[in-house]
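Customer escalation, tier 2.

The customer says the design service returned an amino acid string that "doesn't look like it belongs to this structure." They asked us to rerun it and document both sides in this ticket. The original structure tokens are below, unchanged.
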């Protein structure tokens, strides 16, 4: 990565930090910091382009309709930033494509294409599982007024994006509806290896949870 690219990343980092400072649903700045760190590590192992991976990691939640008004609005602002900072057109397009394709809701359909997209998606997914994923799951459930657990609310096997987002579930159900599925959806071998470790920890957590709650 050259000096100019490093400067662009520093500026992007500042702007994303400012925008996500007060986000309360688990899409906060600390999520971005973790995903970016993890993505850089995987990028190195998988020999992916580190500028594109880092930029896309920093920006990946800024087009999410839970964070900004609409995906369109978010993408507009990201595009304006990349133009303003003089990011080369091919890199800009690549970064925008990654942001648009990696989320879980999109990911339920088409698989991501480029190595860089795969790396960022893996890093984002890793942050949803393991010890940190469990913490985020309960924070999210709390922010929506969902219960920790309720055996009378059944796990949803298939659901539309609308249902996934709007219908209240429970934190424990979310493990089965999403978190435990992520391990088998990993793209890179470095990502998969870490996912397996985090997955095992979640299984262990659930076992202890059921023991304590006599579920
Ligand atoms: P993505 O952007 O990958 O689709 P989300 O934005 O839906 O992920 O979720 C952000 C965080 O909140 C993740 O850690 C996710 O597991 C968690 N989360 C999302 N939906 C729920 C839910 N219904 N119950 C508990 N946690 C959730
Ligand atoms: Ni994310």
């Amino acid at each position: 990565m050259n000096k100019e690219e490093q400067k662009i990343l520093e500026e992007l980092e500042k702007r994303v930090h400012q925008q996500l400072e007060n986000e309360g649903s688990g899409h906060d700045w600390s999520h971005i910091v973790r995903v970016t760190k993890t993505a850089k590590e995987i990028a190195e192992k998988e020999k992916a382009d580190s500028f594109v991976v880092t930029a896309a990691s920093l920006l990946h939640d800024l087009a999410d309709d839970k964070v900004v008004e609409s995906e369109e609005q978010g993408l507009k602002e990201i595009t304006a930033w990349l133009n303003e900072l003089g990011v080369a057109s091919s890199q800009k397009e690549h970064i925008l494509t990654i942001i648009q394709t990696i989320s879980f809701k999109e990911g339920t359909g088409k698989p991501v294409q480029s190595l860089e997209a795969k790396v960022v998606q893996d890093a984002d997914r890793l942050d949803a599982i393991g010890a940190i994923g469990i913490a985020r799951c309960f924070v999210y459930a709390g922010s929506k007024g969902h219960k920790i657990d309720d055996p009378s609310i059944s796990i949803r096997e298939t659901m539309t994006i609308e249902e996934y987002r709007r219908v209240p579930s429970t934190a424990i159900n979310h493990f089965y509806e999403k978190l435990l599925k992520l391990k088998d959806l990993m793209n890179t071998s470095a990502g998969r290896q870490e996912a397996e470790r985090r997955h095992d920890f979640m299984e262990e957590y659930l076992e202890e949870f059921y023991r304590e709650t006599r579920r």
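Tier 2 assessment: The sequence is consistent with the input. The two ends are 52 Å apart (CA to CA). Residues 26, 64, 66, 103-105, 128, 133, 136-137, 140-141, 169, 171, 174, 178-179 surround adenosine-5'-diphosphate (ligand 1) (CB under 6 Å). Sent an explanation to the customer and offered a walkthrough call.
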